[in-house]
């Protein structure tokens, strides 16, 4: 919590484990969560499981898949873990086959998987750029396409929740690849919502604010560690808690959110709109990252 004890900030949410929607809202529904074995993806997967969904966790690494499946089973949910690289269309098709074989055709897809690490643009290799854009934007598209094709063929409705980031609108110094890819994800959400609305498929985007978690990569964590107290840097005077994102995801995909489509919902305590009456001095990104001059 904040050291600013003269101001309350936005109150903490109810603890993880509570649900906002009716019990059983997703009973008999298969929900696929990419990257559902770590961090925010796992938190989203858990909220769907709490509401009765059969959850399919999809990512590349066995330890992540195991962690996601175990977390869901520990709260009494049904889970399937499927190894998948979302950059590969065949791997994505196999994921949907496996999900359908175990739980029936997925009714909800959460495109949460992404890649990211901080690097100044001038130091970014072509491979670093391609990897982040491929996973974050192309992977989101390939999963959405597979989900859309299957629903169009079957004549069934469905719901996609993409996961974005606020630097889609502001740009992200030190994260040029990821920010550009997330801008693409927000834009893709809008195109797909209009294309697939007539077939009953909702497509929304959910944008988390700063929600630290134990699975954050060393790169991202050391970047965060450079800011002494994250709470006082947020208008809410606190960072987000993972269940707050999970509740928003389940609402968007629920029957109560049916008329919401093509929308991007930001869950960040107004942090991305934050401005000061006078701007603080500019600190070049190399300096923020503790790097010396370019080329030295
Ligand atoms: P994270 O812990 O780094 O998780 C990324 C997940 O994506 C991992 O489970 C990873 O699993 C999976 N993944 C990566 N590449 C993949 C691939 N090629 N195929 C399949 N799965 C792949 O990230 P997070 O912090 O929880 O963030 C989740 C989402 O929220 C991301 O979209 C992120 O951009 C967004 N976000 C997070 C924050 C925050 O504060 N944490 C803020 C803004 C936006 P494997 O390694 O097993 O493949």
Largest sheet: 7 strands, parallel
Shape field: globular
CATH hierarchy class name: Alpha Beta
Give the neighbour order of strands across the main sheet. Answer: 3-2-1-4-5-6-7
Reading the helices and strands in chain order gives: EHEHEHEHEHHEHHEH
What level of helicity do the residues show?
A: 25-40%
Q: Give the DSSP E fraction (strand runs of 2 or more residues).
A: 5-15%
Alpha-carbon Rg, integer: 19 Å
Kindly give the count of domains: 1
Distance between the termini: 40 Å
CATH superfamily: NAD(P)-binding Rossmann-like Domain
pLDDT averaged over residues: 95
Low-confidence stretches: none
* CATH architectural type: 3-Layer(aba) Sandwich
Q: How many helices in DSSP terms? A: 9
Strand element count: 7
Ligand catalogue? NADP nicotinamide-adenine-dinucleotide phosphate
Q: Top keywords for this entry?
A:
alpha/beta, seven-stranded parallel sheet, globular, 9 helices, 7 strands, about 40% helix, about 300 residues, Rossmann fold, binds NADP nicotinamide-adenine-dinucleotide phosphate
Please provide a written account of the structure.
By secondary structure, the protein is α/β, with parallel strands linked by helices. The chain is 40% helix and 14% strand. It has one domain (30-270): 3-Layer(aba) Sandwich (Rossmann fold), CATH 3.40.50.720. The protein has helices at residues 39-50, 62-74, 89-103, 126-154, 167-170, 176-196, 218-225, 242-253, 285-288, and strands spanning 30-34, 54-59, 78-83, 106-111, 158-163, 201-208, 264-267. Strands 3-2-1-4-5-6-7 form a seven-stranded parallel β-sheet, sandwiched between helices. Helix 3 crosses helix 4 (126-154) and helix 4 (126-154) runs parallel beside helix 6 (176-196). NADP nicotinamide-adenine-dinucleotide phosphate binds next to helix 1 and helix 4.
């Amino acid at each position: 919590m904040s050291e600013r004890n003269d101001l309350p900030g936005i109150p903490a949410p109810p603890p993880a484990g509570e649900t906002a929607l009716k019990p059983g809202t997703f009973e008999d529904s298969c929900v696929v969560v990419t990257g559902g074995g770590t961090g925010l993806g796992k938190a989203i997967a858990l909220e769907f499981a709490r509401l009765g969904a059969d959850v399919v966790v999809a990512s590349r690494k066995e330890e992540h898949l195991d962690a996601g499946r175990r977390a869901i089973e520990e709260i009494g949910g049904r889970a399937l873990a499927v190894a998948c690289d979302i950059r590969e269309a065949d791997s994505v098709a196999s994921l949907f086959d496996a999900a359908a074989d175990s739980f029936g055709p997925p009714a909800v897809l959460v495109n949460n998987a992404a890649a990211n690490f901080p690097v100044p643009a001038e130091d970014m290799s072509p491979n670093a750029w391609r990897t982040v854009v491929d996973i974050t934007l192309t992977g989101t598209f390939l999963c959405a396409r597979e989900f859309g094709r299957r629903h169009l063929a079957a004549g069934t409705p469905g719901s996609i929740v993409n996961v974005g980031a606020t630097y889609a609108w502001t740009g992200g110094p030190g994260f040029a690849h990821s920010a550009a890819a997330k801008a693409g994800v927000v834009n893709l959400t809008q195109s797909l919502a209009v294309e697939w609305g007539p077939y009953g498929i909702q497509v929304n985007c959910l944008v988390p604010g700063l929600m630290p978690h134990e699975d954050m990569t060393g790169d991202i964590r050391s970047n965060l560690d450079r800011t002494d107290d994250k709470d006082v840097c947020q208008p809410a005077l606190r960072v987000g808690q993972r269940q707050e994102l999970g509740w928003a995801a389940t609402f968007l995909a629920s029957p109560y959110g049916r008329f919401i489509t093509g929308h991007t919902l930001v869950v960040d305590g107004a942090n991305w709109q934050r401005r000061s009456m006078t701007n603080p001095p500019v600190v070049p990104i190399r300096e923020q990252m503790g790097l010396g001059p370019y080329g030295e």
